[in-house]
Recover the amino acids of this structure.
């Protein structure tokens, strides 16, 4: 009798276990095998074209005058030697040059007279040296004014190199003071893009990284460049870290806004669909299937595209990865794999 009771009890327990297993929830999932791969890493930021360090120069004259004609305006592209403006020399500047010329003549006459006196033993060698120095000083002062154009009634300001006119400080008829800014030029080959990076991006981008540049208004790449510098401080106006990108060639306009795609190289690891890596407690996790049950694995996303991600972590290469149905999973949950 006891044997029958024991058999009945064992059979009931087994049946209960079978019913409990059958009643346990399960999730229908889709899986893929573990596969290594690579994704190109890049950072997309936005910037504006402008002159780089030392790429701009302000042109002026060293004497007073009046701006007679102006051949350029802001934005004009000019070539080296091209006439930019004509300045009429002020009478005061012409008088200064005439005075300097008179001083040269006087110094020359004094030197000739001193030499005659020395020959007749009526002057010392010290006096001769002083006369020679006076002549050299007068000639140097006169030549400086001549180089500045004060010896002419008008002077033409020409472009010192191929470039772009950034700013014009005066219009025809305006009085030009000595040393006052007249025209600001930028070198055509010295343009850069200044783009803003957040602090995470700034820690990843390095000088020398290659960059593809795109206009906002048209599809396709419109230029290339190289990251030249990363600022060591935050721009207080934008709240971002400035990156300076040197352009490989022209084609972009000064002041033009552009999209800069910075190449950070290639990331290698396990490649999965983007939705396979789910956020979890400030990190990411994927799900693998072990003996028909769900197993969570913490991972780090190294790089991603809109559809895929490269992840790293303690991933078992022998276990499949869940790519759909993963939102419903809990650790140890039974799963059914969609065939």
């Amino acid at each position: 009798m006891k044997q029958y009771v024991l058999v009945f009890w064992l059979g009931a327990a087994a049946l209960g276990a079978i019913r409990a297993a059958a009643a346990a929830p399960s999730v229908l999932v889709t899986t893929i095998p573990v596969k290594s791969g690579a994704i190109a890493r890049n950072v997309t930021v936005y910037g504006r074209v402008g002159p780089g360090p030392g790429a701009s120069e302000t042109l002026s004259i060293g004497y007073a005058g009046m701006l007679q004609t102006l051949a350029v305006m802001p934005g004009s592209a000019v070539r080296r030697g091209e006439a930019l403006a004509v300045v009429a020399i002020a009478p005061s500047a012409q008088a200064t040059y005439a005075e300097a010329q008179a001083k040269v003549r006087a110094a020359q006459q004094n030197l000739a007279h001193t030499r005659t006196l020395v020959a007749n033993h009526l002057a010392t060698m010290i006096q001769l040296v002083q006369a020679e120095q006076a002549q050299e000083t007068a000639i140097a002062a006169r030549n400086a004014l001549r180089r500045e154009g004060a010896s002419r009634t008008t002077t033409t300001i020409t472009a010192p190199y191929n470039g772009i006119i950034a700013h014009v400080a005066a219009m025809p008829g305006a009085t030009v003071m000595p040393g006052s800014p007249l025209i600001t030029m930028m070198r055509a080959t010295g343009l850069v893009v200044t783009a803003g990076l957040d602090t995470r991006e700034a820690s990843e981008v390095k000088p020398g990284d290659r960059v593809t540049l795109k206009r906002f208004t048209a599809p396709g790449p419109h230029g290339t460049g190289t990251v030249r510098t990363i600022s060591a401080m935050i721009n207080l106006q934008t709240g971002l870290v400035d990156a300076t990108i040197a352009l490989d060639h022209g084609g972009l306009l000064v002041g033009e806004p552009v999209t800069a795609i910075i190449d950070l190289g290639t990331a290698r690891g396990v490649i999965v669909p983007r939705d396979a890596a789910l956020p979890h407690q400030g990190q990411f996790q994927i799900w693998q299937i072990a003996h028909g049950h769900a197993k969570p694995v913490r991972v780090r996303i190294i790089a991603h595209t809109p559809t895929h991600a490269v992840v790293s972590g303690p991933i078992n290469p022998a276990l499949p990865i869940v790519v759909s149905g993963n939102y419903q999973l809990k650790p140890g949950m039974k799963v059914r794999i969609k065939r």
Summary: DSSP finds four helices and 21 strands in the chain. The chain has three domains: 24-38+268-337, 43-53+188-267, 60-187. The domain at 43-53+188-267 is CATH 2.40.30.170 (Elongation Factor Tu (Ef-tu); domain 3).
